[in-house]
Amino acid sequence: MKPILLPGAGSPVSSTVARAARAVLCAGAVGVLVGGCGAPAARVDGARAAGERFERALASGDHEAACRLLAPETLGQLEQDEKKACAEAMGTEDLPTAGAVRTTGVYGRQAMLRLDGDTLFLSQFSGGWKVVAGGCTPQGEQPYQCLLKGG
Known about the structure:
This protein has five helices and six strands. By secondary structure, the chain is of the alpha+beta class. The chain has one domain (14-149): Nuclear Transport Factor 2, Chain: A, CATH 3.10.450.
């Protein structure tokens, strides 16, 4: 799968990942200005736990479990791009091996987890937190570049 740049503000592209990234960045800026509006601990813990489960599944080679933690659009995009079922496609992805979670930012139903070696974007669905983008690296002032993302 080719790396893709998340669209920046003003881009005509309107994907779940782009909305998640913009929401996290905008909410972060507002949080700095307002001074301490935090997400309830349960949402932060839920997002962090989902991200950690996803990374553990990848590290152990449990691609079925990793696929269950993907947002529907991300799962569909992966299968479409690779022309394989998710578990098989996930095994061919060159996603980084991530370490511990360094920070978790939750803003509404969107979250960004910065781990040692990776950044994940997640959204909260009725069935819990799901990964909308993974294998994301910052590009300075440019949008994150992600290896795995939804359409």
